[in-house]
UniProtKB/TrEMBL annotation:
Residue ranges constituting the VWFA domain according to the UniProt record: 6-155
Gene source species: Mytilus edulis
Name used for this protein in its record: COL12A
Domain of life assignment: Eukaryota
Taxonomic lineage: Eukaryota, Metazoa, Spiralia, Lophotrochozoa, Mollusca
InterPro entries in the cross-refs: ECM_Assembly_Org, VWF_A, vWFA_dom_sf
Length: 172
């Protein structure tokens, strides 16, 4: 969904974006940190290579790992805007209690949530508690992965329509 030219290419003067990814269920795994991906193609290939693993939903542990990722040793730059996107069914059932983690996460990043799948009322309430304010600007839901795929297609179409032609100079 990223615009062109490649916003992750460190050899390009527009290569200002960095991404990290954490996969979680019963266990929390850092798939890659902010220093790992040097261009959009590498980032996309790494994301596509990740496989779903069932288990519990230890959201607090994953958010704790996210906080730890916002350090220079993990490739995060200080003084920049940080954003977190949580993809979940919204219902945490193991790990650290969210009340101990969320204030520290919100101090470091703007938090977005995307709920996929069955939306229990407790799951909706929990995911709503994760995201930054105003809630409607940071919280999204789809019923299944097919709907997510359609959403991504729509977003890509919107990004293409807003891309700045390369002969136009962007001002800081």
């Amino acid at each position: 969904m990223c615009p062109r030219p490649d916003p992750f290419n460190v050899n390009n003067n527009k290569g200002y974006n960095r991404a990290a990814l954490i996969k979680f269920s019963s266990y929390v795994n850092k798939e890659f940190d902010f220093a790992a991906m040097k261009n959009l193609a590498d980032l996309q290939a790494s994301i596509k290579a990740i496989r779903y693993r069932g288990g519990s939903t230890c959201t607090g542990n994953a958010l704790e790992k996210a906080i730890q990722m916002f350090t220079p040793s993990k490739g995060a730059r200080s003084g920049t805007r940080h954003e977190v996107l949580i993809l979940t069914d919204g219902h945490s059932n193991c790990g650290k209690h969210l009340s101990t983690v969320l204030p520290r996460l919100h101090a470091k990043a703007t938090v977005f949530g995307l709920m996929i799948g069955r939306h229990s009322s407790s799951g909706k309430q929990e995911l709503t508690s994760y995201v930054s304010k105003p809630k409607p600007n940071h919280l999204f839901a789809v019923d299944n992965y097919q709907d997510l795929k359609q959403l991504v297609t729509l977003i890509k179409a919107q990004i293409v329509s807003f891309e700045i032609p390369e002969n136009i100079i962007e001002l800081p």
